Amino acid sequence: MNNSSIRVFVAIELAPEVHNQVKVLWSHLQRDLHTPDIAWVKPPNWHLTLLFLGEVPVAQIDEVRSALHAACADIAPFELSIQGLGAFPNTRNPKVIWTGVDC
Coil, helix or strand for 44? Predict the structure, then answer.
């Protein structure tokens, strides 16, 4: 049995329109912020995190995937828009920059 695990989270991909909204904000931030501690995430990796599951044994990944597919089977498409920006720990010394969403 393989005892390795991976960090797992539940997320949704951004629609092209939302992705483009974030890209505009991101380009302004990247131009205006000169904080060396910010690790800029590449646009193909942008997503909306819904839930962080933590470390999950690799042997259980297929089971988790199947459960999520079953749980989401009847969820209809929905719209969301970008609503604001924030930073952790604060805006003077950001380590993480986030964008809020509104459904």
Answer: helix
